[in-house]
Amino acid sequence: EEETIPVVERPEMDRWIISSLNSLTKEVTNYLDDYEPTQAARAIEFFLDEQLSNWYVRLCRRRFWKPVDKNNTSGKKDKISAYQTLYECLQTISGLMAPIAPFFAEWLFQNLNNITQKIKVSSIHLSDYPIAHERLIDASLEERMQLAQNVASLILSLRKKVNIKVRQPLQKVIIPAIDTEFEEKIRLVEGIIKSETNIKEVEILPADNNFIRKSAKANYKTLGKKLGSKMKWAASKILELNDDEINKIQENQFLLNPGFKELNEDPVYINFDDIEISTNEIPGFEIAVKGNLTVALDLIITDGLKKEGFAREFINRIQNLRKESNFKLTDKIVVIMEEKAAAKDIIIEFNEYIRAEILAEKIKFVPNILDGTKIDVNNDTFLINISKENI
Q1: Cα(226)–Cα(235) distance, rounded to whole angstroms?
Q2: Which of 32, 58, 139, 327 could form a disulfide with 331 if both were Cys (CB 3.0 to 4.6 A apart)?
Q3: CA 79, CA 67: separation in Å to the nearest integer?
Q4: Residue 256: closest CA among 277, 286, 236, 278
Q5: Are 234 and 218 in contact (CB under 8 A)?
Q6: Are 369 and 377 in contact (CB under 8 A)?
Q7: CB neighbours of 57 closer than 8 A, spacing ≥ 6?
Q8: What does DSSP say about strands 373-377 and 380-388: parallel, antiparallel, or unpaired?
């Protein structure tokens, strides 16, 4: 029913997924033109899973369900933009997959088009095949978002490794920059990284920093086949590589014997697969490396961070109770909970934030609850009752 919002007027997240959708359309069309339906299907699957579901929809979920005041035109436009963007993605996907998944594509098309009548045909198989719009493809934006995904993935893998839940805030992550362009890209997606990984601060170091130092050793599995008798020489040269040289290897081929002409030798090139990279140990930090990307996660949890983590876990338990009670997303509630000193102090400190997240008019503390629901927050148990505000 709403007028279509031009893509250029939509938020950056919408412009990114629309750009990715048009890049996908080009890719799938090329695969099908080359009679490669398997590759086409894999490209569609990757887009749906990694980009549309696990990134766009998840990061935009508040935009989909948040109530909008009739007088708040910007909020309404933001919500409509999210729905129109998702709709366009799904409708295009139904067309892209039609030649290789005809029945599901038809089901998806009918569910979408029967409501909107945007496409004046009775079947997806009677419509034109999707065409990529070059003007909507922003390669720089896609690169930035991929970088944000890679950084977030590394941070989340470190959290999992040391068993720190995502709901527990951490103070900072340190990322060495390869160059100024890399730093600019990180700064442009810094907010997404912090939000997605629950980190307070992203600190960027210059490439020649002394805080995180890399070292490399030869990967005998790949180099042994290439170099044969030169393997021992190459292994010793790789041990001498500095951070800058390791970074170059992570991006492109690297010439291990630059003076080969004077020595009347053949050039010896190595790439990222030919080396194994490690970093120095830093007390209080956990470090991960993927390609030319390195992140160092600060693991120190201060009292303030611990309290905020408790508040976030408490919110999660209340949200689960809301679902179990079949409350609507917009239902306001009253929370009555068993009084325990430590928890009470934290909930009072974060009262406004907690109530906004769980849509609670108030949180009451009572000495005893006879018939409550038992919840566990960071190994501390409470009895609690929630009810709709008007009950």
Answers
A1: 13
A2: 327
A3: 9
A4: 236
A5: yes
A6: no
A7: 64, 86
A8: antiparallel
Is 132 in contact with 23 (CB distance < 8 Å)?
yes
Strand (E) positions, the chain? 170-176, 199-205, 214-218, 254-255, 269-270, 275-279, 285-290, 293-298, 333-338, 360-366, 373-377, 380-388
Q: How far is CA 95 from CA 15, 32, 45, 91, 386, in A?
A: 20, 13, 14, 7, 46
Strand partners, 388: 333
pLDDT tens for each residue of 173-211:
999 988 889 999 999 999 999 999 999 999 998 877 778
Question: Do 13 and 81 meet the contact criterion of CB atoms below 8 Å apart?
Answer: no
174: left (phi > 0), else alpha (psi -120 to 50), else beta?
beta
Between 220-227 and 231-239, two packed helices, what is the crossing angle to 10 degrees? 130
Instruction: With CA atoms as reference, report the closest residue to 207 among 235, 186, 238, 234.
Output: 186
Q: How many of the other CB atoms lie within 10 Å of CB of 26?
A: 16
Contact assessment for residue 310 and residue 168, using Cβ atoms and an 8 Å cutoff: no
Q: What is the pLDDT of residue 322?
A: 92
User: What pLDDT is attached to residue 304?
Assistant: 95
How many residues are there in the chain? 391
Q: How large a percentage of the chain has pLDDT more than 90?
A: 62
List the beta strands (DSSP E) in 131-258: 170-176, 199-205, 214-218, 254-255
Stretches in the chain below the pLDDT threshold 70: 389-391
Identify any residues that bridge with 285 across adjacent strands, giving them in sequence order. Answer: 298
DSSP 243-288: HHHHHHHHHS-EES-TTTTTTT----EE-GGGEEEEE---TTEEEE
Q: What is the pLDDT of residue 390?
A: 59
In this structure, the strands spanning 360-366 and 333-338 are: parallel
Q: Answer for the pair 214, 289: CB distance below 8 angstroms, yes or no.
A: yes
Read off the tokens for 120: 């004046």
Residue 335: per-residue pLDDT: 93
Residue-level pLDDT at 9: 95
